[in-house]
Amino acid sequence: MSMPPVADALLEVDARVAVLTLNRDDVRNALTGTQLIEDIVRVADWVNRCDEVSVLVITGAGAAFSAGGNVKDMARRSGDFAGDVAEVAQRYRRGIQRIPLALSEVEIPVIAAVNGAAIGAGFDLANMADIRLASRRARFGETFLNLGIIPGDGGAWFMQRLIGYQQAFELTLTGRIVGADEAKALGIVLDVVEPEHLLPTALDLAARIAAQPPKALRLTKRLMKMAQRMELKDFLDLCASFQGMCHNEAEHLEAVSRMLKE
């Protein structure tokens, strides 16, 4: 399946791993005022339809992972931030809010390789991934209140599910910036590595995941997500159905055969 076109990002695929690199270092990979929203949403839809991809890695080119919203546009009340209440709300729904909706529907594991500053909506973008790895240069900040606005992209929903209400509340209400080591201590990132090792580490993890049977991999991610909102009995019924599907897949028998030969 051919790769989708991207305007402000780079997309590469190798050995069942897709790497989406946000490529607007001139604006610190801001999500608004660029084509990055469209790029992310388009790639999220594509990986769901592409059976040749099993893992998606998202990272940034240049100094930042993503600075989130374009503050200069905010100051000018232009672009995504122009208009009255109804107009701004509509732009959010038709703009940046498409990212959390799209990423929440991605059927394969998503790894955020946070190379630098992840601020505001950029921080929230990282939190929409299943796993986060950080460069020692990475910085994280839920800085919306510092600008007199709220996390309009769903950040308040994602962070408290990631690190708990109290920690998320403190970070959101103070708007303070945390470094990579504190982010790991809080449970925001899985690991912190030197900058030159970030992408190789992310790709190594992605390769290990992508080596798993692809159909069972997608079903397992669905189970992990659905477990967060289902009662146990209903969840076990779903597990039984998914397991029946897995036992009837050729990839299951191939995996069993390989294990018996080891």
From TrEMBL:
It comes from the Bacteria. One of its GO terms (biological process) is fatty acid beta-oxidation. It is an enzyme of class 4 (lyase). Pfam families: ECH_1. Its EC number is 4.2.1.17. GO terms for molecular function: enoyl-CoA hydratase activity. Keywords: Lyase. Coiled coil: none annotated. Belongs to the enoyl-CoA hydratase/isomerase family. This is Putative enoyl-CoA hydratase echA8. It comes from Candidatus Accumulibacter appositus. The lineage of its organism: Bacteria, Pseudomonadati, Pseudomonadota, Betaproteobacteria, Candidatus Accumulibacter.
